[in-house]
Design a protein that fits this description.
By secondary structure, this protein is an alpha+beta fold. It has one domain: SMI1/KNR4-like (3-Layer(aba) Sandwich), CATH 3.40.1580.10. It is built from five helices and seven strands. The strands form two sheets. The protein has a four-stranded antiparallel β-sheet with strand order 4-5-6-7. The chain has a three-stranded antiparallel β-sheet with strand order 1-2-3, with helices on one face.
């Protein structure tokens, strides 16, 4: 479970790398509680607290042009691109890969990073796995979404 220190460290990391990131300004209410509840109901999962922190305080963001999946706050079937539910409907449900218990949060071309709901961690967190699309395999990447975000920013931005 991420601590307040972890959240502060990631927030500072985001601020340091603003030139490479397209994140909204930090603040409350970026994605409404109503839309979070709709997305969770449609996906049949409770989002981990670290992903909720990202949604509630940034709403979304991109790293060097690649978007972190979020909630666009429009009807899911009418959404496009990197809305987390739209993406799930159009990949997991229609294509069967990733599996229904792996919710993609970042698509990096040949690799997809997913919330792995098969293995819940303490206090509602889930690990993030990296899917190798060519081989259709997965490997552990981070113990939670916040650690994933930190590792990804450091890897992509230095």
């Amino acid at each position: 479970m991420p601590t307040e220190t972890d959240y502060r460290r990631v927030r500072e990391l985001i601020e340091r790398h603003r030139d490479d990131l397209e994140f909204g300004d930090f603040g409350p209410g970026a994605v409404s509680e109503e839309w979070i509840a709709k997305a969770e109901a449609r996906l049949g999962v409770r989002f981990p607290s670290s992903y909720l922190w990202f949604l509630r305080h940034y709403g979304g963001g991109a790293i060097r042009g690649r978007e972190i999946l979020s909630i666009y706050q429009i009807e899911f079937e009418e959404a496009y691109g990197d809305d987390i539910v739209f993406y799930f409907i159009n990949s997991n449900e229609r294509n069967g890969f990733p599996r229904k218990d792996q919710i993609v949060v970042f698509d990096d071309g040949d690799e997809k990073y997913c919330i792995d709901t098969r293995t819940p961690q303490s206090e509602g967190e889930y690990p993030i796995v990296c899917l190798d699309i060519a081989n259709q395999t997965d490997a552990p990447y981070a113990s939670n979404f916040l650690e994933f975000l930190e590792k990804l920013i450091i890897r992509k931005c230095g």
